[in-house]
Amino acid sequence: MPARKKLLIVGNMDKPGVAEQIDALRGWFARRVKLLAVRSCEQADCPEARQADLCVVFGGDGTLLAAARALARWRVPLLGVNMGKLGFLAEYNVEHMQRHLGAVLAGRIKPTERIMLAVRVVRDGEEIFAGVAANDLAISAGEPFRMIELDVEQGHAHVSRYHGDGLVVATPTGSTGYNMSCGGPILEPTLRAVAITPIAPHSLSLRPITVGIDGPIRITAMRVNVGSAAIIDGQIRFALRLCDVVEVRLSPLCARILAHPGRPFFHTLATKLQWGSSPHHASGR
Fold first, then answer.
1. What are phi and psi for residue 284, nearest 5 degrees?
2. Does residue 285 belong to any structural domain of this protein?
3. Do 265 and 235 sit in the same domain of this protein?
């Protein structure tokens, strides 16, 4: 008899109903897998993580992003159970997770590998911050909310100088998040590319662009505010100063996310974000 797969459960325990749902499913999981541990998303990178064959994440998309950053070095596949509102990345509900878990454990449903970004901030030639982004890097103007100025290069090429409220560098995973709300392009999840999207640019001609990520992107803070910051996945914030350089590279790590087998990417776009919906025309006169 083959050994049972090892499971790690991660949950946003601050979200109503998550802890209760996990407790209700403990017995169900115990009959199918070896349950290693149950952890909050802040404790996801626990000693048991390196042994896990699968991590089931209870929460919303933010919980899944936190788990992706924490567990990427162990290459643990993530199955997101949506206990939040949108559930764009956490595609399964509890019923669907129970229906498909056997196929996941048997390898019939395979994870999609999605690029992540290695982000570092250099000040006066010294690295003062480093992190990994699954969704995006955003540079925000912050208080007192005056326009900032950012100079962007890719490799040895100068891209542009951005005047406005900041910019977003989004992975394909993050292209449907902050990037999209700023007017940036939607990227198919398996692409090795990023979107660079200005936030409220002070220009009629400065548009979002999509570039490959094989070369580093360097963003130099030419003018910033007291509250200006580099923000990873909307969850990790680092304050920026004048002349700081934010460097973005392709990370050697990747997020391994199990997509719902009955929901192709464009189906999810259409159902969750109303992408491609026809206009509603008023009837009558």
1. 105, -135
2. no
3. no
